[in-house]
Amino acid sequence: MKLILHIWRQRNTTAPGRMARYELNQVNEHMSFLEMLDVLNEELTAKGEEPVAFEHDCREGICGSCGFMINGLPHGGMKNTTVCQLHMRHFKDGDEVWLEPWRAKAFPVLKDLVVDRTAFDRIIAAGGYISANTGSAPDGNAIPIEKQSAELSMDAAACIGCGACVAACPNASASLFTAAKISHLALLPQGQPERGRRVLAMVDQMRSEIFGACTNIGECEAVCPKSVKIENIARMNRDYLAAAVTYRAETAAAGAG
Ligand code: SF4
Ligand code: FES
Fold it and tell me: Is 82 a pocket residue for ligand 2 (Cβ < 6 Å)?
């Protein structure tokens, strides 16, 4: 099949970008979307032109590296599907397809379709871990966890950090990502001792980055390739409020003492 691609080309963060038009004539419906871009890049390289930069690693929906807008929708808009899992059989001969990087101030464009998502790394570094000694893996697995908590925790842990939630949100909020990373430990016994400290540190870090605030629009959940639920944001906000009250009481008591 033949495709007409319009792709955002931008040399670096400060250079002006533009849409460039490419025609691909030999697209096989069995190719993945990224394989189709590999073919385009081989053609561009053979002509001595700069290949299109895009991120990928696993190419099977688990690492979170890939991700850009396809026709205005993160990952192309297919439910529970990352760009690397999208196949060309979902397109028709002669289709025009527009590819753009995530659009958010907190995710500056590095090159073409690649953005800088290190703001997510800084949120994780602020508290996306526990320091409790849980022993070896068998010891950890021996701790009884009620079924509902285990399942909700696993659902939150499915977040792959792709950034689609930020790109889809009109406020460019990182609340769904941060809430998922907070919830998956907050729902487990191992996460309880540091639960308050973690939520304060991670939410404060999220606020210090250039993300917008959550106004419950729900676009994040609609585009999330891992179906992470916005209930996690409600849990994060409840935990933050409770931790802030406790922390303020402790600070006041220490001051009085
Ligand atoms: S919450 Fe969903 S959309 Fe957001 S980073 Fe995680 S997997 Fe991606
Ligand atoms: S390349 Fe790993 S999720 Fe797409």
Answer: yes
The C-alpha torsion from 208 through 209 and 215 to 219, rounded to 10°, is: -160
Q: What is the distance in A from the centroid of ligand 1 to the CA of 35?
A: 23
| Minimum-distance ligand 1 atom for the alpha carbon of 120 | 5
The angle subtended at Cα 42 by Cα 88 and Cα 114, nearest 5°, is 70
Report yes or no on whether pTM surpasses 0.90. yes
Question: CB under 6 Å to ligand 1: residues?
Answer: 159-165, 176-177, 180, 224-226, 228
Eight-state DSSP code of residue 189: G
- Could you report the per-residue pLDDT of 72-85, keeping only the tens digit for each? 999 999 999 999 99
**215: CB partners within 8 A, 6+ apart:** 171, 173
> Which of 181, 228, 225, 229 lies closest to 61, judged by CA?
225
